[in-house]
Amino acid sequence: MVVIRPGPVTVGGVALKNHLVLAAGVLGTTGASLSRMLSLGAGGVVTKSVGPVPKDGHPGPCVAVLDDGLLNAMGLPNPSKDFVEEIAPLAGKPVVASIFGTNPEEFAAVAGWFTGRVAGFELNLSCPHAEGYGAAIGTDPKLVEACTRAVSSTGIPTWVKLTPNVTDITAIGKAAERGGAGAIVAINTVKAMRISTGLRRPVLGNRYGGLSGTAIFPVGVRCVYELYEACKIPIIGCGGIVSADNVVEMMMAGARAVEIGSAVSDNIRIFETISAELYAKDGCGVEEIIGCAHG
Ligand code: RRO
Q1: CB–CB of 22/37 below 8 Å?
Q2: What one-character DSSP code corresponds to residue 128?
Q3: 48 CA closest ligand 1 atom index
Q4: Which atom, in ligand 1's list, is nearest to the CA of 210?
Q5: Conformation bin of residue 225: beta by default, left when phi > 0, alpha when psi is -120 to 50
Q6: Is 127 a catalytic residue?
Q7: Ligand 1 centroid to residue 210 C-alpha, Å
Q8: What domains are defined for the chain?
Q9: Which end of the chain is more exposed for a tag (fewer CB within 10 A), N or C?
Q10: pLDDT band at 1 (very low <50, low <70, confident <90, very high)
């Protein structure tokens, strides 16, 4: 297996301790859990998404555990502005605030609460099951460009997380790039559903949800590969990564760093597990690996 040299890395203006970042939505609702993931080897952490008003989320069941992944429809539950104090103890750490809104003004307002308190923002333009939020606006290139500009123009590093639930993800990636994104994160969950044959009803309270975990890894690799050919800004690979070899594969597709989410629910020490296999002092430089699968 390919091994790479360890060390800090800056992606889209955010200084990370290594290439492995905790993805939004997993153990990101408290300062304590984010801090724990940093102490367990994450090179950076992304918070659960925070929006302009508090939300309870969708009615349950909100999560279904499948053989090869997780199906969720949490429904963007968040405490809104109160989250600023929740993560105050993490000042100076590589914490990226995931934020959402319905329009550029709301994105700018939420970003304003966190300005000077986080290392950067990740714009959630990709939640697959939120009316008026996430993919509802993240599938429109003009809105993606405007929402990105509303935050990036403040000068704070801005990542944009994309939905795979579009015909051409490169059109959305290029819109984020035009809007001043420092990096693109690909991908959020794949819109999906399961039905309980016993109950004759959808498993999730919201009926539809987002699929994450190993089932979507090939979708993530394909999206990163396409974006690498279309965009100049760095790409952060996300979706079903569980091993060091998965990280290398994402890098070969074009990712400069990766986010890991669902795998944390099976192994709280996943960052240490992957790092032990991925990094060696005599490993190759990442530049040799990133995008090398493109001919
Ligand atoms: O909260 C959620 O239901 C959720 C979000 Br914000 C997201 O971005 N992706 C997802 O699968 N679920």
Answers
A1: yes
A2: T
A3: 6
A4: 11
A5: alpha
A6: yes
A7: 7
A8: 9-54+76-187+213-289 (3.20.20.70)
A9: C
A10: confident
- The CA 280 to ligand 1 mean position distance, Å, reads 35
Which of ligand 1's atoms lies nearest the C-alpha of 126? 8
Residue whose CB lies within 8 A of the most ligand 1 atoms, among 27, 55, 74, for a mutation test: 74
Pick the closest to residue 24 from 142, 118, 137, 140 (CA basis).
Answer: 118
Confidence of residue 74 (pLDDT cuts 50, 70, 90): very high
User: Measuring from each residue's beta carbon to the nearest atom of ligand 1, which residues come in under 6 Å?
Assistant: 25, 49, 72-76, 124, 126-127, 134, 188-189, 210
With CA atoms as reference, report the closest residue to 71 among 216, 242, 264: 216
If DSSP codes are grouped into helix, strand and coil, which group holds residue 216?
helix
Q: How far is the CA of 90 from the centre of ligand 1 (A)?
A: 23
Q: Note the pLDDT tens digit of each residue in 151-164.
A: 999 999 999 999 99
Tokens coding 139: 């599938």
Q: How far is CA 170 from CA 53, 139, 154, 186, in A?
A: 31, 11, 25, 11
DSSP 264-288: HHH-TTHHHHHHHHHB-TTSBPHHH
Residue 196 main-chain phi, psi, to 5 deg: -80, 115
